[in-house]
Design goal:
The chain is an alpha+beta fold. It has 9 helices and 15 strands. β7 and β8 form a beta hairpin. α2 runs antiparallel to α3. The longest helix has 43 residues.
């Protein structure tokens, strides 16, 4: 919750061929938890901190909290251990993950976009998680200059955006490792389903101010009227957002949790489709963006522990239909350094950012503009944090982009620079 006081087939085919060639030529490299920071602690950087914090808590818990109270030598002992793990999940693990999800939503999501656009007043309130409290959160801010429609829309949807980015980090790492721990599975489900839950709980009539989805709809329709665009209804969002469930990682996470409760096994299996020597995991995504709504097909591809990802997206904006295509390839190694490269090309509506007249309404319904981003990440072994774990890695993440929306990235164009560590948390 947030409040404010006062494409073409040719392109897809070429991208797939390029990915196939690169994956086959790339060596394997272990996947760690990236924990990154940047100048404004943006949505993308903040999500890495949230996922990393969850991994730290899970690692510490595994050292001190057992998964079994007794040896499982019979039905009675097994039943007792199942009851213990279920209570532990509901009263201990789930509250932690729910609080972390809300914190990421508010502090790294709404807060990340506010820090990106404005200076000035910014405060957060986080309730105790269920069943110990209401489990909600609130972000309050006061901008130090006039706002624009796209900035407000970006802030409204940023909480769900941050959790979607966090879920993507967990999913991509789990796919690369071919394993998923129960706490990772729990965190993934909470992060990934945040937007779906929020959208499905939005009524046809406007909700009270501060309701992220309702605020998004009100502002979209208000500004769309000036361009003569069709209205966007809550029932449309509720219907379209169900495609979020078309994600194999959801099934992998659910089975991992069920298996843990039944047996205490901490290693879950990530399901993927075998295709011509590759492991493929396509997933559908539904997003609310600063310019409207967006559908995306995000496909992870692996061959002998070498991974890549390709994404194709299409959206709805007033009088226009944005689209984009991108790819990321991971696993290059040069002189001990791991290298990841990626890029994206899109056509999106122009975004009103910064000091612009009339709330930026003049650009609503304007023709689509070309944009893109090129980014890279270098990673090298750095220091050993725990004697039982592999060394942490030092990471530099850099990119150059034009003005436009990519989940987790600044909206304005320019250099995007982040740095931090890759932590081998939970990988013994």
């Amino acid at each position: 919750m947030m409040s404010m006081p006062g494409a073409t087939r040719c392109r897809v085919r070429c991208a797939c061929v390029w990915l196939s060639l690169v994956i086959c030529a790339s060596p394997a490299f272990a996947q760690f938890t990236p924990v990154l920071v940047d100048r404004s602690l943006s949505v993308g950087a903040g999500a890495t901190l949230a996922v990393g914090a969850g991994d730290v808590v899970a690692l510490l818990e595994s050292e001190f909290v057992p998964d079994r109270l007794m040896e499982e030598r019979g039905a009675l002992q097994r039943t007792g251990n199942i009851a213990y793990r279920t209570a532990k999940l509901l009263l201990f693990d789930r509250p932690q993950e729910q609080w972390l999800m809300v914190a990421n939503h508010e502090v790294m999501g709404h807060g990340g976009r506010v820090r990106e656009f404005y200076d000035g007043y910014l405060r957060f309130h986080l309730d105790a998680p269920w069943p110990y409290g209401d489990g909600g959160g609130l972000t309050s801010f006061a901008p130090d200059r006039d706002v624009t429609v796209h900035e407000l829309q970006a802030i409204s949807v940023a909480g769900m955006e941050a959790n979607a980015v966090g879920a993507g980090l967990i999913s991509r790492r789990a796919f690369a490792d071919r394993r998923l721990a129960p706490r990772e599975a729990l965190r993934f489900l909470g992060f990934h389903l945040d937007a779906l839950d929020y959208i499905q709980g939005t009524g046809d009539e406007p909700e009270p101010a501060g309701h992220d989805v309702s605020d998004f709809l009100v502002l979209y329709n208000l500004t769309g009227e000036f361009a003569g665009a069709d209205a966007l209804r809550a029932r449309t969002l509720r219907r379209d957002s169900w495609i979020t469930l078309a994600n194999p990682m959801i099934a992998s996470a659910a089975v991992t949790i069920a298996r843990y409760l039944a047996t205490g096994d901490r290693d879950g299996t990530v399901w993927a489709l075998p295709l011509a020597g590759f492991d493929v995991m396509p997933a559908l995504h539904y997003r609310l963006t600063p310019f409207g709504t967006e559908w995306a097909v995000v496909t992870d591809v692996a061959r002998r522990s070498r991974t890549a990802q390709i994404a194709v997206r299409s959206g709805r904006a007033p009088l226009t239909s944005p689209w984009g295509i991108g790819a990321t390839v991971d696993g290059w190694r040069i002189s001990g350094w791991r290298l990841e490269v990626g890029g994206e090309l899109w056509r999106q509506p122009p975004l009103a950012l910064g000091e612009v007249p009339d709330f930026g309404i003049d650009v609503i319904g304007a023709p689509l503009e070309w944009g893109g981003v090129v980014r890279g990440r270098v990673e090298s072994p750095a220091i050993r944090l725990w004697s039982t774990l592999a060394p942490a890695t030092f990471i530099i993440d850099a990119g150059v982009k034009s003005s436009g929306y990519i989940a987790g990235e600044p909206l304005d164009g320019g250099l995007v620079l982040r740095a931090g560590l890759g932590l081998p948390l939970g990988r013994r």
